[in-house]
Amino acid sequence: MTAPEAHEPQEAYDGPAVLVVDDTEHPVAVTLRGAFQPLDGHFHWYGRIAVDPALDAVRSGSTVRLRTAHGEAAGKVADVDPWGRFRVSGTGRPPF
């Protein structure tokens, strides 16, 4: 694996990622967004994980790690939308 590219956090990322759940890696596609929130002084990122049958065992509320070519961050998966996509979110340096 190559080292992540060093860059400042962006406001958006659409592309490939690796979702790590209980030490199991799942290649996924994600759509992520984020912004600095001055009220609490943190960067909040969030988005959706594309539908993937390999994620059937993942449960809402699971703590995960999300990795892209730009970095890795801890987050949580939450509700599944009507199209079967998990919501994922985190606080702090994003994975993009």
Mind explaining what this structure looks like?
This protein is an all-beta fold. It has one domain. Helices cover 0% and strands 56% of the residues. The protein has strands spanning 12-21, 24-37, 42-49, 63-68, 71-80, 86-91. It has a six-stranded antiparallel β-barrel. The mean pLDDT is 90.
List the helices and strands and how they pair.
Layout (H helix, E strand, L loop, with lengths): L11 E10 L2 E14 L4 E8 L13 E6 L2 E10 L5 E6 L5
Antiparallel strand pairs: 1-2, 1-4, 2-3, 3-6, 4-5, 5-6
Low-pLDDT ranges = none
In angstroms, what is the radius of gyration? 13 Å
Number of helices: 0
For the record, give the distance between the C-alpha atoms at the N and C termini, rounded to a whole number.
17 Å
Q: How large a portion of the residues is in β-strands, by DSSP E?
A: over 45%
Largest sheet: 6 strands, antiparallel, barrel
Q: How are helices and strands ordered from N to C?
A: EEEEEE
User: From the helix content, strand content and strand pairing, which structural class follows?
Assistant: mainly beta
Strand line-up of the largest beta sheet: 1-2-3-6-5-4
Counting structural domains, the number is 1
Shape: globular
Question: Helical proportion?
Answer: under 10%
Nearest-integer average pLDDT: 90
State the total count of DSSP E strands.
6
